[in-house]
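WP5 quarterly update. Target: 4-diphosphocytidyl-2-C-methyl-D-erythritol kinase. Source organism: Allorhodopirellula heiligendammensis. Length: 364 aa.
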Amino acid sequence: MSNSRRPHYRTSPPAKLNLFLEILGRREDGFHELDTVMVAIDWRDELQLQTKSEPGITLDVDWLPSRAAVAVQLGVASDDALLHVPTDESNLVYRALNLITQTSGYTGGWTVRLSKRIPSGAGMGGASSDAAAALRLAAVALADLDSGLARELTNDKLRELAACLGSDVPFFLGDLPSNPGGDVAAVVAAGSPGSLARALGRGEKLIFYQLSTPHCFIVVYPAIALSTAAVYGRAKVTDHPRCGLDVINAFVHPHPNINAEILYNALTPPACGLSPPIGEAIQCLRELERPTHLLGRHLPHCQMTGSGSACFIWLTPDGSPADDGCRLTGVDEALLATIRERLPGGALVQTVATCPAAPKIHIE
Ligand SMILES: C[C@](O)(CO)[C@H](O)COP(=O)(O)OP(=O)(O)OC[C@H]1O[C@@H](n2ccc(N)nc2=O)[C@H](O)[C@@H]1O
Ligand SMILES: Nc1ncnc2c1ncn2[C@@H]1O[C@H](COP(=O)(O)OP(=O)(O)OP(=O)(O)O)[C@@H](O)[C@H]1O
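Structure tokens (predicted):
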């Protein structure tokens, strides 16, 4: 089959927010034992791949709507390190495709286009989500090319490969059924609309919960990229760990008057120690007056996600769907403009809603 006639496999990897993160201990392998609760949100990259007869990976990366437009919003030059995304084997998509190629015995190669919207070093899981999407797309593409190639690519194997790529990667495979029989088709099954997961261990032991209603947030990326390893390196292990179940109950069974403290992240103090503007951003969000149209909705539900630097406001702690299908209407832009004005320096500010961790795969 000529390369030009091969199908394109496409999906839109979502970002994630950690609604809760506690550090339970330091492990022998240098990682930390975690109790964390994550939701996927519809701040998305775009990933498309095609098989090709020649071995090797051709990876093109760009920013949406354009590198220049993102640079202007961030208040940086277009060649700033904040916008650097590798196109070699240090890109997690590249590494995911190498693992799929080695595991399946596929002798061809891949042509890949990655379009970024999820900022790097934000604690939003951008690279991890892209890697999980690459595993899913490649598994479906090889099953279509030659079912024998996909025999090894069971959901359990994909989960194993995901855990090798990074602690956040398994979450973005979604709530995959275990299928020792090697039914790759289950890989395509996207999660339920708006799923929430508790992650234990390094982050690879996942329990998914069904959300009865989507939740929406304002997410702020304050143009600061933090190294996850550096933040963990400064983190402390507590003798009195909090538990992730409270925040799960608050999201699965929302009710009015939820305590703002429920959004807890043990990595916030070390991240703020590394970069004080993160603490200033959280404080700025907490001090926002409650806009009149958000009557009854509390804005102090703010926290940093993952190892930072992005922070978020939970807009629907009482579970009432925000206007216009979980998006704020009208005043939305005014509120976002207020936040942009209040933040020193450039930032990306966006309203988002919960979505499936493993998005739909399109074949064209
Ligand atoms: C902060 C979170 O994003 C919360 O979901 C994750 O724990 C980090 O997931 P990730 O970015 O995929 O992290 P990895 O790429 O696996 O690890 C990067 C570095 O973070 C530290 N790390 C990560 C996960 C973990 N449970 N303990 C750690 O100490 C380690 O220094 C590791 O070398
Ligand atoms: N697909 C990718 N997209 C963006 N960056 C990538 C990708 N693959 C590798 N990287 C490199 O990884 C670094 C971290 O990217 P990112 O922060 O998105 O990773 P993550 O660990 O998934 O997310 P988090 O911010 O939650 O730690 C980037 O600065 C970049 O150098």
